[in-house]
Amino acid sequence: MVAATATSSYQNHTFFSNFLSSSPNSNLFPLHLRCLKRQSLTSDVTAARIRCKAALGSTETKLQKKSQYDIENLTIWLLKQEQAGNIDAELTIVLSSISLACKQIASLLQRSSIINLTGAHGTINIQGEDQKKLDVISNELFCNCLRSCGRTGIIASEEEDVPVAVEETYSGNYIVVFDPIDGSANIDTSLTTGSIFGIYGPDEQCLVDIDDNSTLDQEKQKCVTSVCQPGSNLLAAGYCLYSSSVVFTLSIGKGVFAFTLDPSHGEFVLTHENIEIPKLGKIYSFNEGNYDLWDEKLKKYLSHLRLPGSNGKPYSGRYIGCLVGEIHRMLLYGGIYGNPKNKNSKNGNLRLLYECAPMSYLVEQAGGKATDGHQRILDIKPEEVHQRTPIFIGSPDEVEKLQTFLA
Question: Which Gene Ontology molecular function entries are recorded, alphabetically (predicted)?
């Protein structure tokens, strides 16, 4: 049987070799047939094989180039980070659950006017601010996704009075802080909004076992103590921008990466790798409606920005009214954003735990800087859950220039 097969193979080989030799236009035949011709016309069969392999190899190299259809979604990227040892499996699950909440919020925002989700909810949060309908719903979505993932121990929201210990699971150790809707005043006019989150590891005081003598108040105090960590302890942080595109931007301490939601199949696709903020920028973003309430040193700085530079043009003023939108633009184009203290708000308007620390972590990972005017934002240890702080954040050279005016 083997002999018959070998004979048949030899006859086929001879047939194709003779056919190609007699053909006047044999060079027009496919590459694999021309290889057979070479084998029949040369005495050194091995050399012919090498030539054929070399020709085929060049074709394979072209095929190995990245196709325009190759995409890397958030799930694949997270799994690669886990394989590389940058994060563990539990953090992968937590980040995936946050991305799911962001997808749900994005869908609601796109249909908010249609399904009557605009306007006030009729309640006031712990900061004394009127809550929008989507403030309440988005907070519930975040909480539900984080509870159901089974890997979080404590969740703290800007919309909640106190941090919440997750009772559904005893295996979760991660602490997640978040602002479910940043810039909610923009919802009714369909302008830019976003979500902000930060993830901490467990604090020692959160690892105390619950015994029969523990009271709810004691456990709440443990939660508060555990959540109030400086931003330098963050393991991961990010935001989701809801605008003309939905962009999920993330750092796990290895640079900053952005993923854009592809609505055709509902996946966050990697679109910006290793984002590096420009060292200089030509955009400043301050709410200048508070100009007369600011410190004189800060006013001098802003007057300096308005003067024509070496190119004959002053800085451009841009103010979106949404921290996520401000930081997203700044990461790509540079510049500086400020929310300073004023005569009416001695500590500024933004929350340290939910907004300033996560954003400062991201900007520093991209090569930028963030300060309250005197110290690095990530070095501030919160004394209370809803603590506020002034913040100046952006391109490194721009922040350093500001500090010379405030000194």
Answer: fructose 1,6-bisphosphate 1-phosphatase activity; metal ion binding
- What integer pLDDT is reported at residue 10 of this predicted model? 46
Q: What distance in Å separates the CA atoms of residue 327 and residue 47, rounded to the nearest whole number? A: 61
Contact 223, 162 (CB under 8 A): yes
In DSSP notation, 125-190 reads -TTSPEEEHHHHHHHHHHHHHHHHTS-EEEEEETTSSS-EE--S-SS--EEEEEEEEETGGGGGGT
| Total number of domains in the chain | 2
- For 95, other C-beta atoms within 10 Å of its C-beta total 27
Band (150; pLDDT cuts 50, 70, 90): confident
Q: Residue 201 sits in which domain range?
A: 74-207+216-275
SS3 (DSSP) at 225: helix
Is 197 among the domain residues? yes
pLDDT at 218: 65
One domain for residues 240 and 365: no
pLDDT at 221 over 70: no
**Residue pair 330/281 in contact by the 8 Å Cβ criterion:** yes
119's CB contacts (< 8 A; 6+ apart) are: 132, 133, 188
Q: Would you say residue 25 lies in a domain?
A: no
Q: Is the pLDDT of residue 100 over 60?
A: yes
Helices 296-306 + 396-406 axis angle, to 10: 130
Residues 89 and 157 in one domain: yes
Q: Which residue has the higher pLDDT, 376 or 224?
A: 376
Least confident of 56-60, 172-176, 275-279: 56-60
